[in-house]
Specification:
The protein has about 140 residues and is mainly alpha-helical. It has one domain. It contains 7 helices and no strands. α1 packs across α5, α3 packs across α5 and α3 packs antiparallel against α6. It starts with a helix and ends with a helix.
Length: about 140
């Protein structure tokens, strides 16, 4: 199952309510995707752990997009080279580029620093230091 539907929900939530809105939007996007898929995961007995892992993946993806925007903005203006570097690092399907771009732009404009997002990722992956090390690489 693709995570990009959840990212779209997170973008909408972020636009309306900042970081907390992104979390709520991501959850709403997840519920929409489940409904759209005919609740196959629930009907087949698969659930709990898979849904939890997917929710973590969505939150991680959103936080990384926001962190990338905050880092790009840290030296003043976001350059075309920084945007191209982001596109090289993240292989976003063409149909989801607008939503990811919107999240990136909203995060870039938002005055909130990178700290809440870095803390969110650190808390999510406290027991998985390899993920955090990969993010810093």
């Amino acid at each position: 199952m693709s995570i990009w539907g959840k990212v779209v929900g997170g973008v909408a939530g972020f636009a309306m309510g900042g970081p907390l809105g992104a979390l709520i939007g991501g959850i709403a996007g997840h519920m929409y995707d489940q409904k759209k898929a005919g609740d196959e995961a629930l009907l087949s007995g698969v659930g709990g752990a898979d849904a939890q892992n997917e929710a973590r993946q969505v939150a991680f993806t959103q936080a990384v997009i926001v962190l990338a925007a905050k880092m790009a903005k840290s030296d003043g203006a976001v350059s075309k080279d920084e945007i191209l570097a982001f596109r090289r690092m993240f292989h976003v399907p063409p149909e989801d580029e607008a939503a990811v771009g919107k999240l990136f732009n909203e995060a870039r404009k938002d005055a909130t620093g990178y700290e809440p997002y870095a803390e969110q990722i650190a808390m999510m992956f406290t027991r998985e230091p390899a993920v955090l090390e990969e993010l810093l690489a």
